[in-house]
Amino acid sequence: MRLGADVIVFSSHLNDGILTQSIGLLSYTYMMQTQLDRVVIPMVHYQINTSSGSFGILNDREHFISNLSIMLRWSPFTSELELLEQLDEIGCHGTKIIIYNLWFNDDGNLELDFDFDPEDICIAGDIKKKEADAPSSWKKLNEQHTANRLRYSLRVYLSILYLRLPENFTIILRGKIVELHNIADDLKHPEYIVYKPHSSDQSAVVTTIGFIKEAPEVNVHGFNIYHKNRLILVVSYLRNRGRGVVGVLIADFIQPTHNKQDFERTSLFAKLENRLKDMTWEYWDCRCHLLGYQKKMPKSQVPVDTLPPKPPGLEIPMALNKSSYPQSTLEQVSLTKRKERRESMDLHKMKKQTREQDFSASVGCNNENIQTTGCSEDQEEDRGAVHLIEVNKKLHARCLEFEQTNKELYHKVIELRSKIQEAKLEYNSLLSEVKYQDGTPLQPSFVYPDFVSLVQAYLL
């Protein structure tokens, strides 16, 4: 109902020589025009015995005639014969879905564009936006790339929807077969990286990563994540670091959402997402020079001759990250500090001798007190170090508290999700047990009271 107001469904099934054929109508137009306060889905069912050739209906006769008349009035078909022809096209097994009365946008045009490409179905608004925003010189490579076209082209989206197709399976769009496109086959400088999920009962998966063949001209990057051979999500990281890096993997160990457009936001998926981001940047740091970019050198490997010269008359300051300085510089700093310490001790010694000569009456001040005076600076430094250690311990304790709170909240979320799932199961079970007041089972025309408001809210 997101695509159109009305839909009619045809289905056939053959089992042990008995062919069952069913037709169902879900019409928003019918419910609004007749001002129904509940959702009504008329259905008709046929049964054919292929061995004897007998033909019959499974509905009550009066109920069958009522539902058939609704279908003929509110569907594109005007006779029962036309409905049966649709079932004959399906054959013994299959389903046909026809959506009509498609929605219009605010401009009064169809949301789906059937004229832009006679072999494709596109989203009209997205096509106009792409054409308006794209410069002519940049459009050919970027806008025609699969990563951008799949957002509005049904044919391009279907071409990468599955990694592999069975031999007896074909997707036909507007009379033309959709060709399968595996993005992993187009990568330059591909690498295969094994990822082990953070769960002991899950096997490792192989991730294919590399540069797209149009790189660096095309600014496309990210991962196509598949679940059981079907594309679920395209993850991208909007940074220049990683431009042109594309990856493909099958992640059967995480659960997709009900609409197959995303994954459940669990801790397992979050860890996978973080690893893919790191994987992208690691590949870029090691391979970006293959596309002509300058390889970034880690700080720990900066050559000695590239360090700035020491200004005259100034000492080299002590650095917290000592590994960034050459060994000779560290030795020079150490010798300078020891020399300053000795000069300070000599100064204290000279002061001591002066005090002994000029103030002989103060001889009572023993050597221990003098040593204490000479070492007061060291004691002050020690007290500062002890204070920093205590502060560090307190911060570490607070971090542990936050981690524990985070774990408790995570377990609470899991518990609430479990309760929601149980409530859904119980709700579905209660729906299946609903009967009429006289105790007879529900007829094929299903009635769900108080559901029209929900449908209207969804459509709005």
TrEMBL record:
Keywords: Coiled coil, DNA damage, DNA repair
Domain Morc S5: start-end pairs: 152-284
Record's keyword annotation contains Ion transport: no
Superkingdom, natural source: Eukaryota
Stated name of the protein: Morc S5 domain-containing protein
Claim: DNA damage is one of the keywords in the record: yes
Coiled coil regions, renumbered to chain: 406-433
